[in-house]
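REVIEWER CHECKLIST
Item 1: Sequence provided? yes
Item 2: Single chain? yes
Item 3: Sequence as submitted:
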Amino acid sequence: MDKRRELVAFGKALKRIRKNNKYTQDELSLYSRVDRSFISELENGEKSASFLTIVSLTKALHIPISEFMVAYEREIHELEDYNFFN
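Item 4: Structure as written out by the authors:
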């Protein structure tokens, strides 16, 4: 498993969903109670999220975790298609 690829895909999925909901990082931070700088680190693939953080983020984004995981899988495949890490 390529941890960097996994983190980048997670971050891309989070950012895409956040922007689709028209939230800024500050707004998502307020609604999820996750620090804005940590959200930025997640979106940039620099940090990983705990399960409870994922729960907080998906609740704030008004989506089920399963929908987030589908978005994450889509990002993984897109990275692989473009050989992002090769």
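Item 5: Key structural point noted by reviewer: The chain has a mean pLDDT of 93.
Item 6: Recommendation: ____
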